[in-house]
TrEMBL record:
InterPro entries named among the record's database cross-references: HTH_LacI, LacI/GalR-like_sensor, Lambda_DNA-bd_dom_sf, Peripla_BP_I
GO molecular function: DNA-binding transcription factor activity; transcription cis-regulatory region binding
Domain HTH lacI-type: 3-58
Species of the source: Hydrogenoanaerobacterium saccharovorans
Keywords attached to this entry: DNA-binding, Repressor, Transcription, Transcription regulation
Protein name: Transcriptional regulator, LacI family
Length: 339
């Protein structure tokens, strides 16, 4: 059976109050010798505090919920690692929920986490979360009165707490890199058009083209779903059109682009240059290492966790929205255009 404070009191011939004061490190006039006896006995009896009782007293469980859209995507597994590390460092527990990019599961998991009395939620909404779906999640979190921080994806709403990348800048940098290599016909594999992060990357792409006095060509744009199959489908759809480079809006789709190009007997970068977005760890160890836009995923997870803990503890936030800067990582998948 679980060891209680009463068991330790009986073992040491001390009062329950004395044992409780020592174990909870409360100010008292208890002697150092008695404190050492209590702590030694507690260790020998494998005493663990009853967290439910502690949470009832403190009205806090020191537990955070993390909702991610697809844990198979290394972006989210790396994000979860950064969040877990920050939680452990601060003595918090993390509950991970994977929605498999299903909005209805977003709703279900918000309710599940609320039933488990989490103190706050870090929320990466599912890919099928259009504005209407997002408002449903946003309103539910507000009704349940649970502090939350959005990570990466969001929509304009009143007073949100968000941690994300400057995706306009990221899209611009990726396209600018290809332009500097001499490419002028650059195809794009985007995320869903209703997601702000995908629209921002496309905005950056258009901005770079405009600066280079290149007319935007709608026929070179393929709307994907941020998964590998989207990259394969994009190559099939674009095949026969004139392009010398492809900008995939995440690394998972870039992997699909690799596979699709290989099926059409095209080589990276000899025939087609490819640039991705995210810089998940697999991108560096591919046969042709992927040039990509780096998101500091671990740092974003840490920042989101710190922001949420501050909100839970009613500490003032320096800023509600934290925006990280992208970084161009040049590897072997992009090369100078050859006529």
């Amino acid at each position: 059976m679980r060891t209680t404070i009463k068991d330790i009191a009986a073992k040491t011939n001390l009062s329950v109050t004395t044992v409780s004061l020592v174990l909870n490190n409360k100010p008292s006039k208890i002697s150092q010798k008695t404190k050492e006896l209590v702590l030694k006995t507690a260790k020998e009896m494998h005493y663990r505090p009853n967290q439910l009782a502690v949470s009832l007293i403190k009205k806090r469980t020191k537990t955070i919920g993390l909702i991610v859209s697809d844990i198979r995507n290394n972006f989210f597994s790396s994000l979860a690692k950064g969040i877990e590390d920050e939680c452990r460092k601060n003595g918090w527990t993390l509950i991970l929920c994977n929605t498999s990019d299903n909005h209805q599961r977003d709703i279900e998991y918000i309710n599940v986490l609320a039933s488990k009395s989490v103190d706050g939620i870090l929320y990466c909404m599912s890919i099928d979360s259009n504005l209407e779906n997002f408002k449903q999640s946003y309103d539910l979190l507000g009704t349940l009165n649970i502090p939350f921080v959005m990570i990466d994806r969001s929509y304009p709403v009143p007073n949100p707490a968000i941690v994300r990348l400057d995706h306009i800048r990221g899209g611009y940098m990726a396209t600018r890199h290809l332009l500097e290599l001499g490419h002028r016909q650059i195809a794009c594999v985007t995320g869903p058009n209703y997601l702000e992060d995908s629209r921002d990357r496309l905005h950056g792409y258009k901005k770079a083209l405009d600066e280079a006095h290149i007319t935007f060509d709608e026929s070179l744009i393929f709307e994907g779903g941020y998964d590998m199959n989207s990259g394969i489908a994009a190559v099939d759809a674009l095949f026969g059109k004139k392009f010398t480079a492809i900008f995939a809006f995440n690394d998972m789709m870039a992997y699909g682009v690799y596979k699709g190009l290989k099926a059409h007997e095209l080589h990276v970068p000899a025939d087609i240059s490819v640039i991705g977005y995210d810089d998940i760890f697999l991108s560096e160890i591919l046969e042709v290492p992927l040039t990509t836009i780096k998101q500091p995923i671990g740092l974003m997870g840490c920042a989101a966790t710190k922001k949420l803990i501050a909100m839970i503890e009613d500490k003032p936030l320096a800023e509600k929205t934290t925006i990280f800067e992208p970084e161009l990582i040049v590897r072997k998948s992009t090369a100078a255009y050859k006529n």
